[in-house]
Design brief:
The protein contains 27 helices and four strands. With about 675 residues, the protein is mostly helical. It folds into three domains: about 270 residues, Farnesyl Diphosphate Synthase (Orthogonal Bundle); about 160 residues, no CATH class; about 180 residues. The strands form two sheets. The protein has a two-stranded antiparallel sheet. The protein is elongated, with a radius of gyration of 29 Å.
Length: about 675
Amino acid sequence: MSLKDIFNEEEMKIGSKVHQKLQLYIDKYSSLFNIDIEDIGLNAYYMYPCMFKDDFVDISDEEKIDLAVFGILYYKYIITFDQKLDNETTADTWGLFCRSFFAQEAIKGLSKFLYPNEEEYFNIMDNYVSEYVNAIKLEENCTGNSGYEYYATIMRGKSAIAKCFAAAMAVKSKKTEVLDRLDKSQDYFYEAFQLFDDFKDLKHDISIGKHTWIIDNIDSSNEKLYTQLYKKNMIEVIFQKINYNCDKALALAGKSKGWFKNICLFKTKIQMIYIDIMSKKFIPSRISINKDNNKLSLNSLEENMRSYLKDDYINNEFIQIYHNMSFLKEEGYISEENQSGDTFSRTFLLNILRECDFQSNNKKEVSMYSKWVEELLKKETKIFKCGWSYFPELKELSPDIDTLSEIMRFSYAVNDDRLNERINECIKFVINNCINLDGSIDTWMLSKDNASEAEKYAREFAKKRWKIRQDPEVTANFLYSLSFYKDKVKDYERIIEKGLKYLLECRSENGFWSSSWYCGDMYGTYVCTRCFKEFDETGEVINSILTAVLSVFSDNGRCKEEMPLTDYLFAILIIIELYNLEYSEKYKDKMVLIFRRFIERINIEIDNEIGFLPSSAFIKVAEIVYKNNDKEYKYDLTYESILITTALGLKCCNRIRMILGEDYGEKI
């Protein structure tokens, strides 16, 4: 994240002038005290007046320069004490004495800059100083286990002095009414920034005996610090809190484009770091990949997956598949703040592997499928009447039919009497409570009549947060899963018929089904493809699906437009599903070319460092839209897993191998 990503050329020139003018003061006191004062170079603080300029348009460029210089001088004085308290500086008493003159220069300059309103400004600054001193005292006196709010006060307070820039501009412009909003925006951002800093500096903070909220949640004597965070589901919680605070900061950013961009870029950086951590750090590289040979490369990918699954389910962890989120009290949740779920994601993964006939090589161990049966029986809801919730302990979230559909197919395959009994109970519940007149099926498993108090609460919460909704992919997934239970299909013919009609009405003009819960168009289309392939006797619908999917590929077998990896995988799976149709005969050459291009791309996509495919956005967690200066900015928070991406890739490869034979890996 560079300053040039936030500021234009003219604004960068202002920053350079701030740097030059500041250097005059540094040279003056370096000479006077005969010490070296580190020049930290052009950084964000030099640009703070430019960050907030759109809220204070009558501040001239020269005034921005002066304000930045005086603000930084005061900040340099304060930060030296902060570093001294944190044992992070070698500055001696003489050095601290030298920097005290920075504060004198700052106060003198700001008084002149703000005259005749300097008293109003220094009253505001008194509050910032109080926040800062309080934060330092809390940090010094902290003995651990103090709760998140305690640490949030520290995280915000330690950056309170940085609010001096916007405050000076507000007083100078006589627009102090906007300061409350900007102060809150900065507080939220500094909390997010400091939380990331605490995460990044974890080992160092432990070494100097410092307490932070993150350190409170681990055994600091255990060397495997970050692995502890991962297993305790803390990493995603930390990054969720960072995201939450960034979102709040954005909502209060006002007109100031620079400040808005600064938060956006920090948030983007955080998301990239999070993806990197979750994708790579906890899955060691196993078999090296030979990318010169497609076939050997894909064989290595498969061996890596087998090796990982064998180790991970033996240890009963499967940690990479978990989806961890925080549900904050500030957003109205009453459940435990930190929630973890793997019911949907692990069942989805095992269904993919089962369809590939993918078993562990370790014959001594209980099958991972049998082991998961035992887990599913434990995970069925204790809060609601029946079913499985994405986050089992979250009172606001009822069991959902999409998770049920995955478990239905899994249960059919493993054929465990206990699980089958629970599935039959759930199917009856859905038929009696969740089928609508238009053929759609509700997403949430909630009673229509005689609802329990837990159901009433979840329904009201769903109305506010997610809506009482019907999603095409949920309807299609349930109908398709129902087809496995042949003895029930005849009883539910009318439900299936109306459901198919509803799905056709939901179809987009481009021939795809957009998904409410999953990223891109291809997952929803894939689920509907399998559903119509099972029930569409005329073949008209599935023929049109094939035409639509093939239209996104050029005659050379490549995508016409860049497609995210998950979307691409589901597009290939659709073509595989429909490969043997009579209608597809005329497209066989193109389909084979698409398959060969797919093998090439998968070979390229494999991450050499870890020996797996990279993670790719799969489930939509939240979609947040902000408006700034009449322009909309959208951020998608998503769940992704390299295990799911890799399993989907292997499923495609195995099916293509069956179609093309042993020469499937040959280069075009």
